[in-house]
Amino acid sequence: MKKRVIYSAIQPSGMMTLGNYIGAVSNWRDIQADGANDCIFALADLHTITVRQDPEKLRRNSVSFLALLLAAGIDPKRSVLYVQSHVHEHAELCWLLNCYTYVGEMNRMTQFKDKSAKHSDNINMGLMDYPVLMAADILLYKSDQVPVGVDQMQHIEIARDIAERFNNIYGETFVVPEGRLTKTGAKIMSLQDPTSKMSKSDPNPNGVISVLDSADDIARKIKRSVTDSGLEIVFDPENKPGVSNLLTILASAEGKTVEEEVKAFEGKMYGHLKVACAEAVVEMLRPFREKYDAYMSDEAGLLAVAADGRERAQAIAAKTLADVKRKIGLLV
Ligand code: ATP
Ligand code: LTN
């Protein structure tokens, strides 16, 4: 039986947050454990440069994110793990797909609008083209499913539209991918502003937990997190965004449902929830630091993992690209 192709990527920028881990990376690891899947994971460094980066920092962050993914349990023997910019087929397919994507579609993308507002001094073409490069990433590998957080679902919709459009013109070429969300925690919110996403580029460090934070830092940030008026612990993201976020984090960390957590906290106070949440997150992230340090002490080993991933990824990507070029009528 043909295995399902699972594809996803993360940008090597800033730090890996609790949101990245719960919403995406821990899900990748669980999907990898299921033998029925062929998993491919990338560092989306070409996406990262849509916002200006310091070259030395970007290089260090790329190495660091390889170590973070390994520490999170991504196993290069079971999954392909590679760096997007190592496989030139991504940029090339992106160009081809650009010719099947409308400017109007890109103008409507909420992430583009948000990032344009945030980086108004640098609204570059790459920022606008970001979703097309992401479509190229996904479509090159004939991916069936793309595990991401909720914030990326609009980009997956566009990848589906582009795939369908191309298939309609040239015949069956691309697999039309599906987004795949984790059951709990597809959108973890900032601890300081629970109406906005916990984001690696958040300027307020107290709103964000890094997977490498110390136990003390994690406990402090959760204890100081913004909660809501009232006393009752209920799941109501609209009216009680702070408490609902803590319930979501706790449920994800303990592998339970939000309903189970709500039941367990009946009649208890916000303080109890914060203590339990802090303990559960510390427990979940405990092994991270040690494993990360071990991988980071062997940079050559990390680069060897990326080199092996590059070869395996490119073997697949090159075939798809040649097929696309042929269909379009380019000489191959
Ligand atoms: P930024 O906010 O700076 O653009 P980011 O924190 O969203 O960055 P990405 O590299 O863009 O990080 O995202 C990697 C993966 O993590 C994506 O699948 C994204 O949907 C997921 N993700 C990011 N933040 C969260 C969050 N707060 N909750 C759940 N999933 C998240
Ligand atoms: N844009 C994504 C990262 C990303 C991605 C992808 C995710 C780049 N290419 C392909 C899934 C599939 C983000 O998380 N910001």
What would you call the shape?
globular
Q: By helix and strand content, what is the structural category?
A: mainly alpha
Bin the strand percentage.
5-15%
Small molecules held by this entry: adenosine-5'-triphosphate, L-tryptophanamide
Describe it for me?
With 332 residues, the chain is mainly α. Helix content is 55%, strand content 8%. The protein has helices at residues 18-33, 45-48, 55-71, 89-98, 103-107, 110-118, 125-140, 153-170, 215-223, 241-254, 258-264, 270-296, 299-328, and strands at residues 4-10, 37-43, 79-83, 145-147, 178-180. It is globular. The structure holds adenosine-5'-triphosphate (ATP) and L-tryptophanamide. The site of L-tryptophanamide has 13 residues, from strand 1 and helix 7.
Give a short summary of the structure:
The protein has 332 residues and is mainly alpha-helical. Helices cover 55% and strands 8% of the residues. The strands form two sheets. It has a three-stranded parallel sheet. A two-stranded parallel ribbon has the order 4-5.
Describe this protein with a few key phrases.
332 residues; mainly alpha; 55% helix; binds adenosine-5'-triphosphate; binds L-tryptophanamide
List the helices and strands and how they pair.
Layout: E1 4-10, H1 18-33, E2 37-43, H2 45-48, H3 55-71, E3 79-83, H4 89-98, H5 103-107, H6 110-118, H7 125-140, E4 145-147, H8 153-170, E5 178-180, H9 215-223, H10 241-254, H11 258-264, H12 270-296, H13 299-328
Helix pairs in contact: 3-12, 4-7, 4-13, 7-8, 9-12, 10-11, 10-12
Bound molecules: adenosine-5'-triphosphate and L-tryptophanamide.
L-tryptophanamide binds next to strand 1 and helix 7.
